[in-house]
Amino acid sequence: MSEQKLGILGGMGPQATQVFYQYVLDRTEANCDQEHLPTLILSDTKMPDRTAAILSGDTQALYGRLLKDAKLLEDCGCTAIAIPCNTSHYFVDKLQGDIHTPILHMIRETAAAIYAQGRRRPAILATDGTIQSGLYQAACAQYGLEAVAPDPDTQKLVMSIIYDEIKQGERGSREKFAAIDKAVRRAGCDCAILACTELSVFRTYHNLPPFYVDAMEVLAETAVTRCGYQLRMI
User: Fold this and answer.
1) pLDDT at residue number 233
2) Residue 1 pLDDT > 80, yes or no?
3) Which CATH number fits domain 6-106+218-227: 3.40.50.1860, 3.40.640.10, 3.40.50.1820, 3.20.20.190?
4) In the annotation, is 196 catalytic?
5) Residue ranges of the alpha helices (H) in 187-226?
6) What residue spans define the domains of the chain?
7) Which architecture characterizes domain 107-215 according to CATH?
8) Exactly one of 85, 140, 191, 227 is catalytic; which is it?
9) Is there a shared CATH topology between the 6-106+218-227 domain and the 107-215 domain?
10) pTM above 0.70, yes or no
11) d(Cα 6, Cα 221) in Å, to the nearest integer?
12) What is the pLDDT of residues 16-44, one digit of tens each?
């Protein structure tokens, strides 16, 4: 097999990109530098806000920048591309049609992982853009899963943790998250997807139970195995 190289189209946000690469390192069975997966990280912090673009319908500038970055990774010899941003997956099918390098689909891989775990009613903890795009709902429906979006008050708490706290360099409110947890369990969900990479960052600060499925962790594991490397059990 020819040498594999992972391209990470990141910067959305930059801290999430850092955490994603750490996930890749942690989940690769390697005992020295040379046994790790060669990786090229493009942290494009000037990428327009994904939720704002989707909700406004003004996506041209955002898509153009995503495509430019993806082509750069492709031109640099990447054999697979991971995008550690859930909301950006609104554009992934179109993006895949415009480049040759395979893009790993975090949302579909997460739905498959939940199905394999025997769970059937996941809550979606994500940005307004991801929720309104229906991406997780559609991916889960392919496996017969009933994806549940939070009620409006709970969704405001999710957005507050993402935009008012994690994106501003804070660790995130445990009190707000406790209210979110109570709401999704009360809704009869048997798990909840951390479907925003800022919530994956939140997880690194707070000890969350297995009830929570981290989509970015699923993407990291997919990146390792698709590039032909062995997963490390942790």
Assistant:
1) 85
2) no
3) 3.40.50.1860
4) yes
5) 197-205, 215-226
6) 6-106+218-227, 107-215
7) 3-Layer(aba) Sandwich (3.40)
8) 85
9) yes
10) yes
11) 12
12) 999 999 999 999 999 999 999 999 999 99
